Amino acid sequence: MFQIIFLLSLFLSISNAANQDFCVADLKAPDTPSGYPCKPAATVTVDDFAFSGLIAPGNTTNIISAAVTPAFVAQFPGVNGLGLSAGRLDIAAGGVIPLHTHPGANELLIVTYGHITAGFVSSASTVYVKTLKKGEIMVFPQGLLHFQIAAGKSGAVGYVVFSSASPGLQILDFALFASNFSTPLITKTTFLDPVLVKKLKSVLGGSG
Fold first, then answer.
1. Is 115 labeled as ligand-binding?
2. DSSP character at residue 167
3. DSSP secondary structure string for all residues of 39-104
4. Confidence of residue 131 (pLDDT cuts 50, 70, 90)
Protein backbone atom coordinates (compact mmCIF):
# COMPACT_ATOMS: atom_id res chain seq x y z
CA MET A 1 0.00 0.00 0.00
CA PHE A 2 2.83 2.36 0.89
CA GLN A 3 4.50 1.72 -2.49
CA ILE A 4 1.27 2.55 -4.33
CA ILE A 5 0.90 5.81 -2.43
CA PHE A 6 4.55 6.66 -3.08
CA LEU A 7 4.29 5.96 -6.80
CA LEU A 8 1.08 7.99 -7.06
CA SER A 9 2.70 10.95 -5.29
CA LEU A 10 5.74 10.72 -7.55
CA PHE A 11 3.54 10.63 -10.64
CA LEU A 12 1.58 13.68 -9.51
CA SER A 13 4.75 15.62 -8.73
CA ILE A 14 6.25 14.81 -12.12
CA SER A 15 3.02 15.78 -13.86
CA ASN A 16 2.94 19.08 -11.97
CA ALA A 17 6.59 19.77 -12.85
CA ALA A 18 5.82 19.19 -16.50
CA ASN A 19 3.22 21.94 -16.31
CA GLN A 20 5.89 24.34 -14.97
CA ASP A 21 8.58 23.85 -17.60
CA PHE A 22 8.69 27.57 -18.33
CA CYS A 23 6.95 30.87 -17.75
CA VAL A 24 7.23 33.02 -20.85
CA ALA A 25 6.74 36.62 -19.75
CA ASP A 26 3.52 38.38 -20.58
CA LEU A 27 5.06 41.75 -21.44
CA LYS A 28 1.62 43.34 -21.72
CA ALA A 29 1.20 42.86 -17.97
CA PRO A 30 3.07 44.98 -15.41
CA ASP A 31 6.47 43.87 -14.17
CA THR A 32 6.57 43.09 -10.45
CA PRO A 33 9.30 42.36 -7.88
CA SER A 34 8.66 38.66 -8.54
CA GLY A 35 8.80 39.10 -12.32
CA TYR A 36 6.29 39.12 -15.12
CA PRO A 37 3.26 36.81 -15.04
CA CYS A 38 3.20 33.93 -17.51
CA LYS A 39 1.64 34.12 -20.94
CA PRO A 40 -1.18 31.62 -21.47
CA ALA A 41 0.39 28.38 -22.70
CA ALA A 42 -1.81 28.40 -25.79
CA THR A 43 -0.20 31.67 -26.97
CA VAL A 44 3.43 30.58 -26.48
CA THR A 45 5.40 29.97 -29.69
CA VAL A 46 8.95 28.95 -30.53
CA ASP A 47 9.74 32.62 -31.23
CA ASP A 48 9.39 33.29 -27.50
CA PHE A 49 12.49 31.13 -26.95
CA ALA A 50 14.68 32.68 -29.67
CA PHE A 51 16.12 36.20 -29.94
CA SER A 52 17.92 37.82 -32.88
CA GLY A 53 18.51 41.22 -31.29
CA LEU A 54 22.20 40.60 -30.60
CA ILE A 55 23.17 40.02 -34.23
CA ALA A 56 23.57 43.66 -35.24
CA PRO A 57 26.29 45.80 -33.65
CA GLY A 58 25.21 48.57 -31.32
CA ASN A 59 25.65 52.27 -32.07
CA THR A 60 28.91 53.42 -30.51
CA THR A 61 28.67 57.08 -31.62
CA ASN A 62 28.12 58.42 -28.12
CA ILE A 63 30.04 59.87 -25.21
CA ILE A 64 31.43 56.49 -24.10
CA SER A 65 32.07 55.17 -27.65
CA ALA A 66 30.35 51.96 -26.66
CA ALA A 67 26.98 50.26 -26.73
CA VAL A 68 25.25 47.59 -24.67
CA THR A 69 22.44 45.67 -26.35
CA PRO A 70 20.37 43.77 -23.76
CA ALA A 71 18.57 40.47 -24.07
CA PHE A 72 16.84 40.76 -20.70
CA VAL A 73 13.32 39.60 -19.99
CA ALA A 74 11.87 42.86 -21.32
CA GLN A 75 13.40 42.12 -24.72
CA PHE A 76 13.48 38.30 -24.56
CA PRO A 77 10.38 37.01 -22.73
CA GLY A 78 11.47 33.38 -22.88
CA VAL A 79 14.11 33.92 -20.15
CA ASN A 80 11.45 34.87 -17.61
CA GLY A 81 11.93 32.83 -14.44
CA LEU A 82 14.95 30.95 -15.80
CA GLY A 83 17.59 32.90 -13.88
CA LEU A 84 19.60 34.02 -16.89
CA SER A 85 19.81 36.64 -19.63
CA ALA A 86 22.41 37.99 -22.03
CA GLY A 87 23.73 41.06 -23.80
CA ARG A 88 26.15 42.28 -26.41
CA LEU A 89 28.98 44.77 -25.86
CA ASP A 90 30.29 46.83 -28.76
CA ILE A 91 33.24 49.00 -27.77
CA ALA A 92 34.86 51.24 -30.37
CA ALA A 93 38.56 52.06 -30.23
CA GLY A 94 39.09 54.17 -27.12
CA GLY A 95 35.62 53.29 -25.85
CA VAL A 96 34.62 52.22 -22.37
CA ILE A 97 31.75 50.66 -20.48
CA PRO A 98 32.12 52.86 -17.36
CA LEU A 99 32.14 51.63 -13.78
CA HIS A 100 28.72 50.10 -13.11
CA THR A 101 26.97 47.41 -11.10
CA HIS A 102 24.30 44.81 -11.66
CA PRO A 103 22.50 44.57 -8.30
CA GLY A 104 20.62 41.42 -9.27
CA ALA A 105 23.12 39.18 -11.05
CA ASN A 106 26.59 37.79 -11.57
CA GLU A 107 28.03 38.46 -15.03
CA LEU A 108 30.14 36.35 -17.37
CA LEU A 109 31.95 38.14 -20.23
CA ILE A 110 33.00 36.30 -23.41
CA VAL A 111 35.26 38.22 -25.80
CA THR A 112 34.51 37.47 -29.44
CA TYR A 113 36.55 40.14 -31.22
CA GLY A 114 39.51 42.30 -30.32
CA HIS A 115 40.87 42.80 -26.82
CA ILE A 116 38.98 44.01 -23.75
CA THR A 117 40.59 45.23 -20.54
CA ALA A 118 38.09 44.40 -17.81
CA GLY A 119 38.07 44.53 -14.06
CA PHE A 120 36.12 44.84 -10.85
CA VAL A 121 36.60 46.20 -7.34
CA SER A 122 35.92 43.88 -4.41
CA SER A 123 34.20 44.97 -1.21
CA ALA A 124 37.69 44.94 0.35
CA SER A 125 38.75 47.58 -2.24
CA THR A 126 40.97 45.13 -4.10
CA VAL A 127 41.05 45.71 -7.86
CA TYR A 128 41.16 42.74 -10.25
CA VAL A 129 42.07 43.69 -13.84
CA LYS A 130 42.79 41.52 -16.88
CA THR A 131 43.18 42.15 -20.62
CA LEU A 132 41.22 39.48 -22.45
CA LYS A 133 41.58 38.33 -26.05
CA LYS A 134 39.12 36.56 -28.35
CA GLY A 135 37.77 33.40 -26.75
CA GLU A 136 38.68 34.34 -23.18
CA ILE A 137 36.13 34.89 -20.44
CA MET A 138 35.90 36.72 -17.12
CA VAL A 139 33.36 36.72 -14.33
CA PHE A 140 32.12 39.72 -12.33
CA PRO A 141 30.47 38.93 -8.99
CA GLN A 142 27.02 40.31 -8.29
CA GLY A 143 26.78 43.90 -7.11
CA LEU A 144 30.47 44.79 -7.50
CA LEU A 145 31.63 47.82 -9.49
CA HIS A 146 33.21 46.72 -12.78
CA PHE A 147 34.18 48.05 -16.22
CA GLN A 148 35.23 47.07 -19.73
CA ILE A 149 37.58 49.04 -22.03
CA ALA A 150 38.58 48.39 -25.65
CA ALA A 151 42.28 47.59 -25.47
CA GLY A 152 42.97 47.45 -29.20
CA LYS A 153 43.03 50.02 -32.00
CA SER A 154 40.12 48.38 -33.84
CA GLY A 155 37.64 48.15 -30.96
CA ALA A 156 36.17 45.01 -29.46
CA VAL A 157 33.02 42.93 -29.18
CA GLY A 158 31.91 40.74 -26.32
CA TYR A 159 28.83 38.88 -25.14
CA VAL A 160 27.71 38.78 -21.53
CA VAL A 161 25.57 36.27 -19.68
CA PHE A 162 23.80 37.17 -16.44
CA SER A 163 22.47 34.96 -13.66
CA SER A 164 19.11 36.74 -13.69
CA ALA A 165 16.46 37.58 -16.26
CA SER A 166 16.53 41.16 -14.86
CA PRO A 167 20.09 41.87 -13.68
CA GLY A 168 19.55 45.59 -13.16
CA LEU A 169 22.08 48.26 -14.06
CA GLN A 170 23.48 51.36 -12.39
CA ILE A 171 26.32 53.30 -14.00
CA LEU A 172 28.30 55.21 -11.37
CA ASP A 173 29.11 58.27 -13.50
CA PHE A 174 25.51 58.64 -14.63
CA ALA A 175 24.18 58.18 -11.10
CA LEU A 176 26.40 61.02 -9.90
CA PHE A 177 26.56 63.41 -12.84
CA ALA A 178 23.52 62.74 -15.03
CA SER A 179 21.01 62.99 -12.18
CA ASN A 180 19.67 65.73 -9.91
CA PHE A 181 22.05 64.66 -7.11
CA SER A 182 23.10 68.09 -5.80
CA THR A 183 26.66 69.30 -6.26
CA PRO A 184 27.16 70.05 -2.52
CA LEU A 185 26.08 66.51 -1.59
CA ILE A 186 28.30 64.92 -4.23
CA THR A 187 31.22 67.06 -3.06
CA LYS A 188 30.58 66.08 0.56
CA THR A 189 30.15 62.36 -0.09
CA THR A 190 32.90 61.83 -2.68
CA PHE A 191 35.53 64.49 -1.76
CA LEU A 192 35.50 65.71 -5.38
CA ASP A 193 36.13 69.36 -6.14
CA PRO A 194 32.81 71.18 -6.77
CA VAL A 195 34.20 72.78 -9.93
CA LEU A 196 34.92 69.31 -11.33
CA VAL A 197 31.48 68.06 -10.28
CA LYS A 198 29.78 70.95 -12.08
CA LYS A 199 31.91 70.33 -15.18
CA LEU A 200 30.97 66.66 -15.25
CA LYS A 201 27.30 67.54 -14.72
CA SER A 202 27.46 69.89 -17.69
CA VAL A 203 28.91 67.09 -19.84
CA LEU A 204 26.47 64.38 -18.76
CA GLY A 205 23.37 66.56 -18.38
CA GLY A 206 22.91 66.48 -14.64
CA SER A 207 21.36 69.22 -12.52
CA GLY A 208 21.67 70.48 -8.96
1. no
2. -
3. PPGGG--GGGG---TTSSPP---STTSEEEEEESTTT-GGGTTTT-EEEEEEE-TT-EEEEEE-TT
4. very high
Per the annotation, does 100 bind a ligand?
A: yes
Whether 207 and 201 have beta carbons less than 8 Å apart is answered as yes
Q: Is 146 annotated as a binding residue?
A: yes
Where exactly are the structural domains of the chain? 58-168, 170-208
- Whole-angstrom distance, CA of residue 137 vs CA of residue 109: 5
Q: CA-to-CA distance for 140 and 154, rounded, in angstroms?
A: 25
Superfamily of domain 58-168: Jelly Rolls (2.60.120.10)
- Rounded Cα distance between 52 and 176, Å, is 34
Q: Distance between CA 42 and CA 24 in Å, rounded?
A: 11
What residues form DSSP beta bridges with 159?
88, 110
If you average pLDDT over residues 85-109, what whole number do you get? Answer: 97
Q: Annotation-wise, does 136 bind a ligand?
A: no
| Listed residue (161, 141, 167) closest to 73, CA to CA | 167
* Contact (Cβ atoms closer than 8 angstroms) between residue 90 and residue 58: yes
Backbone angles phi, psi at 175, to 5 degrees: -65, -35
Mean pLDDT value of segment 37-65: 96
pTM: 0.86
